[in-house]
Write a structure and sequence with these properties.
Number of domains: 3
Keywords: Cytoplasm, GTP-binding, Hydrolase, Magnesium, Metal-binding, Nucleotide-binding, Potassium, tRNA processing
Bound molecules: guanosine-5'-triphosphate, magnesium ion
Largest sheet: 6 strands, mixed
Order of helices and strands: EEHHEEEHEHHHHHEHEEHEEHHHH
Enzyme class: hydrolase
Distance between the termini: 10 Å
Subunit structure: Homodimer. Heterotetramer of two MnmE and two MnmG subunits.
CATH class of the largest domain: Alpha Beta
Oligomer: single chain
Structural class: alpha/beta
GO molecular function: GTP binding; GTPase activity; metal ion binding
Subcellular location: Cytoplasm
Strand content: 15-25%
Length: 442
């Protein structure tokens, strides 16, 4: 990367800036062990340690006083996270200790790393491609089991491998076209464009791109609003799902006035659930404001679970993609045939309801987290879409018998997009954005 040097030594606190039992401070860069050994109680042991070994000792300040007892995990050049000589110090997690260690490293002439800089170096040294570097961020910020598992798969190279295979297939097509373009037509047998290979490739790219929806769902989660008329049992269901008495339940209509929200997990999908004020005509100013808020939430929801009180069927909205009508109080009255029914009191029908919610949100393709390559990055989605479109245009041109040099342009465009995905040809400004806050080429 133009303008970026990796020969300075960087350091950073790898754990949270908070008091805890232990904290980890990382140092990376050629010669870091020599420099660190000047303030380490066992200099020789640190300098001569083999790769991936632990060295116990004390870090000392300029006067020779111990700052803390530490364990240094040593990685020699070509190994470790950054593939540079590096040391990870596990120290005690007191803020005073952390502060002193960071001050010591600064004093020794090392540079405090920018956010994402360790990962950026791992990328520069070829330890990770761009999809894996992104997976590091996605893994660290994952909120659900499935999101974590999918990100880990990408970090281990599942997406990298998938894209490499697609690129190889594309390069095969490009090579065939180039041979044809390089030689006069009469020197070669009649050229047949590898059409079926192209069709297959388009499907692969599109299929991978389509996983974005599910990846996003498991990452970002969804908003579900419990709505319905007063006394329908919204707060009862809310409490049942959260397994705690969060919302007030009573036979008095209009009990819930303002909405309450809480987080839960529905079959691996992170859900923000809202209990809302029951919908009815009201002269009460406060209740009316609550109802307005309910309506606003309904507008913003990914899914509205509309509860109907089976004992007094009032307004029943139309089912649509975003509205799931559920008949409550099935323990008292049998609901209409074929309709989703539950009892928020006994819990009857609730597992069915949760399965239906997950199915609706995932639009049929519920993930178990370990079966497939799924993307969740908008950048990757855009590049895959661009690649698919370029390949599709190429197919149209081939079918119209347009000269090969024009179809080759579209193939080149697709190749460019796949290259950007893995970071082979990614512009510096995009890299800078990905390794957030970190200045490339400054
Ligand atoms: N038998 C039976 N009673 C229920 C069921 N669900 C709720 N109830 C009762 O119905 C009454 C109203 O329940 P809530 O959960 O407060 O209803 P709500 O929809 O939150 O009502 P508002 O907050 O007033 O809009 C309470 O007395 C509940 O105990 C159910 O499935 N079966
Ligand atoms: Mg309520």
């Amino acid at each position: 990367m133009k303008g970026y040097v990796t020969d300075d030594i960087i350091y950073a606190l790898a754990t949270a800036w908070a008091q805890s039992a232990l904290a980890v401070v990382r140092v990376s860069g050629q010669g870091c062990r020599n420099l660190l050994s000047t303030r380490f109680s066992r200099p020789k042991a640190l300098i001569e340690a083999a790769n991936a070994t632990l060295v116990h000792g004390y870090l000392r300040d300029g006067n020779g006083s111990a700052i803390d007892e530490v364990v240094a995990a040593v990685y020699t050049d070509g190994h470790g996270y950054t593939k540079e000589e590096s040391v990870e110090f596990s120290c005690h997690g007191s803020l005073a200790v952390i502060k002193e260690i960071l001050a010591l490293f600064n004093h020794l002439g090392m540079r405090s790393a920018e956010g994402g800089e360790f990962t950026f170096r791992a990328f520069l040294h070829g330890r990770l491609d761009l999809t894996q570097a992104e997976a590091v961020g996605e893994l660290v910020s994952s909120q659900s089991q499935i999101s974590r598992s999918l990100a880990l798969g990408r970090l281990e190279g599942s997406l990298r491998g998938r894209i490499a295979a697609m690129k190889e297939q594309l390069l095969g097509i490009v090579a065939a076209v180039e041979v044809q373009l390089d030689y006069a037509e009469d020197e070669l047998d009649e050229f047949v464009f590898p059409r079926s290979g192209l069709v297959d490739l388009i499907k692969q790219v599109k299929d991978l791109s389509a996983t974005y929806q599910i990846g996003r769902l498991y990452r970002m989660g969804a908003r579900i609003v419990l709505a319905g008329s007063t006394n329908a049992g919204k707060s009862s269901l809310f409490n049942l799902l959260l397994k705690q008495e969060r919302s007030i339940v009573s036979p008095v209509r209009g009990t819930t006035r303002d909405y309450i929200e809480a987080d839960l997990d529905v079959q691996g999908i992170p859900i923000r659930l809202y209990d809302t004020a029951g919908l009815r005509e009201s002269d009460d100013a406060i209740e009316s404001e609550g109802i307005r808020r309910t309506e606003r939430l309904i507008g913003q929801a990914d899914l509205v679970v509309y509860l109907v009180d089976s004992t007094e069927l009032g307004h029943v909205p139309k089912e649509d993609e975003r509205t799931l009508v559920v008949y409550n109080k099935s323990d008292l009255v049998k609901p209409p045939k074929g309709r989703m029914a539950i009892s928020a009191q006994t819990g009857e029908g609730v597992p069915n309801l949760l399965a239906e919610i997950a199915k609706r949100l995932a639009k049929g393709s519920v993930s178990s987290g370990d079966e497939q390559v799924v993307i969740e990055s908008e950048r990757q989605h855009t590049l895959l879409e661009n690649a698919a479109q370029a390949l599709q245009r190429c197919l149209v041109l081939v079918d119209q018998d347009i000269p090969l040099d024009i179809t080759a342009v579209e193939l080149g465009e697709a190749l460019q997009n796949l290259g950007e995905l893995t970071g082979e040809v990614t512009p510096a400004d995009i890299l800078q954005k990905i390794f957030s806050g970190f200045c490339v080429g400054k």
